[in-house]
Description:
By secondary structure, this protein is an alpha+beta fold. The protein has helices at residues 22-35, 60-69, 98-105, 118-126, 151-166, 179-182, 200-208, 233-237, 242-258, and strands at 5-10, 14-16, 37-38, 43-48, 51-58, 73-78, 85-88, 90-94, 112-116, 132-136, 141-146, 170-174, 191-194, 218-221, 231-232.
Amino acid sequence: MQLPDLRILPLDLLVPHERTDPRRVNPLLARIREEDVLRNPPIVAPFGNGEHLFVVLDGANRVTALRMLGVPHVLVQVVDYAQVQLFVWHHAITQCSVEELRDQIHNIPRLRIYEGDLTGARAALARREALAFISCDHTHKTYILCGGSDVRERTELLNQLVDTYEGCAKVQRTTSDNLSEVRQSFPDASAVVVFPRYEPAEIIDLARTGVRLPAGITRHVLPLRALRLNYPMAVLCSDIPLAQKQGHLSEWIHDCILNRRVRTYAEPTVLFDE
């Protein structure tokens, strides 16, 4: 049976690549305290170049919740970034009109806004001439957003952009940049904020320098992902040596296999209890 690379690592070796979402951290914190297990391990990848740090690809909110609990070690799934597909989430905007959204973003310093069409906006974003764009209404009007001289400045502007509308709108993740398509899932969507796709090297470089991407725009797809581990928090919270904790994990996984509690799904799987 092919198994993911599960390890217990010191929490201070994990470096997030995206900002956390406070609205999700507190419920996670409460659930971990109540269930006393770590349900799904964060996904991490080594920095490389001899550095003993790991970038958190998925699970920034879980890592933040564990830090708040004062946990010294965390169970993670370690992946080779070269084997991971990196896509992008866009933000469907609901409960906020296009006019409100436009007025809000006009107040962001150093952000330039142009009107265009969807095809031109896609091309500008692909060439990184645009920072992002906003697709809106039935006329296919598009607002192209520009600014920032390098990837760090552009990322900081993206954070300001997301901060601006998260205060006045409800945000849903989507893979489509076409509002008509998005409305099939979110009928009340007024616009779609479309983001560029980052490269893995950019993700690691930004994390190394302390620059965080907005929460919920990177989408990492793994060839094999561990879910529903429900690993006991008592082990992670204990003061026993790290090597002993890793030994416990190995025995725990072996026991799960012997008792047929491990199952691999080869086909795409849809979960309804997240």
